[in-house]
Each structure stands twice: as C-alpha cells, then as structure tokens.
From TrEMBL:
SUPFAM superfamilies: Phosphoglycerate mutase-like
GO molecular function: hydrolase activity
Protein name (record): Histidine phosphatase family protein
Presence of the UniProt keyword Hydrolase in the record: yes
Phylogenetic placement of the source organism: Bacteria, Pseudomonadati, Pseudomonadota, Betaproteobacteria, Burkholderiales
Domain of life: Bacteria
Pfam families in alphabetical order: His_Phos_1 (PF00300)
Keyword terms of this UniProt record: Hydrolase
Length: 223
C-alpha cells in the first residue's frame, strides 16, 4: 500500500496585486518541509502539481530542502478556484483591499458564502467551471494515483480548494464541511491518504510536523 502526500502551497501574496507568488516565508516553509523529509529519509516515486506559479515554487522549495524530486506531472485539475470571481458573483461592488483584521474577516465570510452557492449551483462565477467540473478534476487526479501508483509514495502539491475537495470526496462530506476544511488548511500543511487499487483512505489532515519546533512555530500561516 502506498501513500499520497497532499501539500498545500507555501504562504502566497495575499492582498497583493498578484496573489500567485510565494512570499519569502512561503519559500522558507517549503524548503523546511523538504529538509524535514530529507532528515527522515523520505523519497517520492512520483510528483503531481497544479499549474499555478505558487505550486511550482512550492515544489521547487521542497526539492531544494529534500535534495531533489522526480519530475512533476502538472495537472490543471489541481488548480485553485478563483476566489475573486467567486466573491464578485455575490458582491459585484468593489471591495477595499483586505489589509485590516475586519476586512480580512469580511473577505473570508464572503468567500465561504460564495463557495456554498457555487457548490449548490446557484451562482456561475465568470471564467470558472461549475463545481462538479472542478471537483471532477480533483477526482481524476486521485484516480490517476490509485490506478498507476499503488505501493508508491506520491507527492501532490496544490491548494486548499482541491485538497479539501479531495478529503471531502474520500470521506463523503457535506458541502458545508468541505468548505470548513478548506478554510482550515494551513500553508505547507501535509494531508496523507493511504492508496490501494480500490480506494483511498484518509490517514492525516492539515499537519505541520516540519514546523513543530520552537524556532519554526512562528512560521505557521493560513493565507
């Protein structure tokens, strides 16, 4: 039986004009994760990622700390949803940049509301697939692992939306639970599935063993 390690990207550039870039802290989180695995002799037989810059940058950091990794298979089905398009679908008026605690909370309240409506099929955000197609891309990646990588260790680098969709699919959770899981996944966190030909089973969720030391606990971030 193999193991699929799903990693959320390191801290990106929340509130900036281009979110899809790791911050310096995000790069450090990724390198630290790779170093943690190298110290424990962890190796991967295959790597899957989305096609976003923050996914590639996170994988590069992990490989730097790990001392190398197999060439990645990039899958658009592992890309994140467009949070700005989701919010615009329910709040068309311009919003100020989420640069205060209250604006930050407002952003995520709106996002959770929009996610629920998108998953329920009541809104169709511009430029985005419907929920079933989005979730289908995630399921296709999981099926690929189950078909081709039984007995292997597979690294999958993606975002909170696809990872929570994967967990929701494996556990059969209701949409509101999937959204709650999404909101709790931390940067560079690791979720593990055991892999057999017939099914995937959740082993761990949203863990940060590489940051569980006094000198690294301040590196824990969520956005």
């Amino acid at each position: 039986m193999g193991t699929l390690y799903l990693v959320r990207h390191g801290q990106a550039s929340f509130g900036a004009a281009n979110y899809d870039q790791l911050s310096q802290r995000g790069h450090e989180q990724a390198v630290r994760l790779g170093a943690y695995w190298r110290e424990r002799g962890q190796r991967f037989d295959a790597v899957l990622t989305g096609t976003l810059h923050r996914h590639a940058q996170t994988l590069a950091g992990i490989a730097e700390g790990l001392g190398g990794a197999p060439e990645a298979h990039a899958l658009p089905g592992l890309n994140e949803y467009d949070s700005e398009a989701l919010i615009r679908a329910i709040h068309p008026e311009p919003l100020p940049r989420p640069d205060t605690p209250e604006r930050y909370r407002q952003h995520f309240r709106l996002l959770c509301d929009a996610l629920a409506q998108w998953m329920g099929g009541t809104i169709s955000p511009q430029g985005m697939p419907d929920w079933e197609r989005f979730a289908g891309g995630v399921r296709a990646a999981l099926d690929l692992v189950r078909r081709q990588h039984v007995g292997q260790n597979v690294l999958l680098v993606s975002s909170g939306g696809p990872i929570s969709a994967a967990v929701g699919h494996v556990l059969g959770t209701a949409p509101e639970v999937t959204i709650a899981l999404n909101m709790r996944i931390r940067n560079s966190a690791v979720t593990e599935f055991s892999v057999s030909p017939k099914r995937l089973m959740l082993q761990t969720f949203n863990t940060l063993p590489h940051l569980d030391t006094p000198e690294h606990r301040s590196w824990i971030t969520h956005a």
